[in-house]
Design a protein that fits this description.
Blueprint lengths: L1 E5 L3 H12 L3 E5 L3 H9 L4 E3 L11 E4 L3 H9 L8 E4 L19 H8 L4 E5 L5 H6 L10 E6 L2 H13 L3 E4 L6 H17 L17
Parallel strand pairs: 1-2, 1-4, 2-3, 4-5, 5-6, 7-8
Antiparallel strand pairs: 6-7
Length: 212
């Protein structure tokens, strides 16, 4: 799959690393093009680009920025009509301990309203960068899960396929409006990791008990 990653922070770097290992062709861009070049140079299937040339023939765009930077970053790529956009953002407060959007909207829905020409899917927002970078398997043998919510079947299937290619399980979380549940779930995970001191090697999942 051809993928553009916007962002060179912890999540963006983890995505570039794991996508490259899985054999995807990655184009990476960010506010600091030097950092993007350094990141791409460490991975065989990655190339760094200025925002204006970062889209190329990518089928999927991953927004690995802060929520408040996501819309501008997407618009900086140029014409993104019809592309699948994976929104991994969470609308966090300055201290990361609460959300700035909720109940009647979500970060994902706000981005979708701002760039309606794309096919947007919420996914990967409940994973810490450490979990993404370390891979899907935990010490107890459990496999990490990626929750996927979208109104676009093509976007949903693209995110599911991508998650599976990285070794994660995938959970269909329904329509995009259910990002209103996924973003608070990420907020709880952040609280448990930092506020409760459990660390960043944790991730939520859903267990299904089969009948005997």
């Amino acid at each position: 799959m051809n993928i553009t990653v916007i962002g060179t922070g912890n999540m963006g770097s983890a995505f570039v690393s794991q996508l490259s290992k899985a054999g995807h062709a990655v184009r990476v861009t960010g506010r600091d093009i030097g950092k993007a070049r350094d990141l791409a140079a460490r991975h065989a299937h990655a190339q760094a680009h200025e925002a204006s040339t970062a889209l190329g023939d990518s089928e999927v765009i991953i927004v690995a920025t802060a929520y408040q930077d996501a819309i501008q970053a997407l618009r900086g790529l140029g014409d993104i009509s019809g592309r699948v956009v994976i929104d991994i953002t969470n609308p966090l407060s300055a201290d990361y301990m609460s959300l700035t959007i909720g109940h009647d909207s979500s970060a994902a829905e706000e981005i979708a309203r701002a760039v309606p020409e794309v096919q947007l899917v919420k996914a990967f927002n409940t994973l810490f960068a450490q979990v993404l970078a370390d891979g899907p398997l935990f010490a107890d043998g459990q496999r990490g899960s990626v929750f996927v919510a979208s109104d676009s079947e093509r976007a949903r299937q693209s995110a599911i396929s991508l998650a599976l290619s990285l070794g994660f399980d995938s959970i269909d979380a329904g329509p995009l409006r259910n990002a209103r549940y996924l973003e608070p779930l990420a907020g709880l995970n952040i609280y448990l990791g930092y506020g409760a001191g459990l660390g960043t090697g944790i991730a939520p999942t859903w267990l299904h008990k089969t009948e005997a």
